[in-house]
Amino acid sequence: MEIFLEQFVKKAKGLAEEGVVGKDLGSFRAGRTVGSKSQGFRLLQKHIKTKKHQAKVRNTNIYAATKRPPVEPNEENEYASSAPSWTPTNADEVKAYVVINILMGINKTSKYLDCWSQDQALRNEFISKLMTKNRYKKLCPYFHCSNIREDHDENDKIQMVRNLVNILQENFPNMFVPGRSLSIDEAMIKYNGRLSWKQYMPKKPTIKWGIKLWCLCDSATAYCLAFQVYTGCGINALLVQEFGLCYTVVMGLMNRYLLSNHTVYTGNFFSLLPLAADLLQVDTYFWGALRSNRIEVPRELPNMRLHKYDTVKWVKANIMVTKWKNNKDVYMLSTNNDGSYVEKQRTNFRREEIISIPSVITD
Questions:
Q1: Out of the domains of life, which is the source (predicted)?
Q2: Which of 244, 258, 294, 306 lies in disulfide reach of 282, CB 3.0 to 4.6 Å?
Q3: pLDDT at 318 exceeding the cut of 90
């Protein structure tokens, strides 16, 4: 699935020797089957086809039969269960169950059972007509995305939803051709339950506790092209140990979009000089804020004391590190900036003045 790291470097060097790297691949033509007006649930329907719902049906029925096996073994019926009042589910019912859970997240109530309340002020007519309260309560403990009899990996912390995650990771890039600019950042899914790898992000404005994702998005539309669920080092522990978490995440997300003349924008967490250099070998450009305490950053830069609006640059093999002084020092890393400046008008103590700002900061 991924061109990882030692193989990636070898491939990059081979392509450079063949003269492939650095060629102008022309302008992009974004193509898509989704647009800016596409609704979230419609997109989910496109990603998860009917045959995928059939897998959830089978996994749910198998889980019910496994947790509450029949009193007498029944080899002819793998869904046989001793659970009281339980009947095997079907595709229509599973789709209805998913819809109900999505709607409950949109129209929040103090108790989920209020959707079936006799009080018209609380009752949700659409949900109550879609499925009965008793049937919904029966499905809740048995609904399953994975096959408990087959899909069991103690090292996979998301094995319970691994099948669903794989479906989404496979389909997301197939529905949208991105433009030149891509961005990588973290995202949070709110979750307050018990989870050993739940993350706490105190600087996040809204969601501080939850599940963290690494996301690769099209910069113009914010469409998610690829994502990884962060559960710790996990199965990539050896790669993380050798190359670092930031390097491993970026290469994993960008694997499908190398050699396509893209520019990837990141925050300072992912900005590494070796990463920018290796991406440049496969015709992928890098642009992002940089932490001054990175080992690869020349020590002369952080030690230089600049006056306000002064700039200093460090360039090596098409990699440019820019330090610009505003209210505080700003560091930028880029592999496709020409080092030009942009003039901006600023008000300083009620006096208008023209200042020069490096284009790597304004673009």
A1: Eukaryota
A2: 258
A3: no
- Asked whether residue 158 carries a pLDDT value surpassing 50, the answer given is yes
Domain span including residue 47: 40-139
Task: Read off the pLDDT of residues 191-217 as tens digits, 9 standing for 90 and up.
Answer: 888 888 888 888 888 888 999 999 999
pLDDT above 50 (res 157): yes
Residue 52 resides in a domain: yes
The pTM is what?
0.79
87 found inside a domain: yes
Instruction: Please check whether residue 226 lies inside any domain of the structure.
Output: no
| Domain count along the chain | 1
> Residue 266 burial by CB count (10 A; 0-12/13-18/19+): exposed, middle or buried?
buried
Q: What's the one-letter identity of residue 224?
A: C
Instruction: Classify residue 123: in a domain, yes or no.
Output: yes
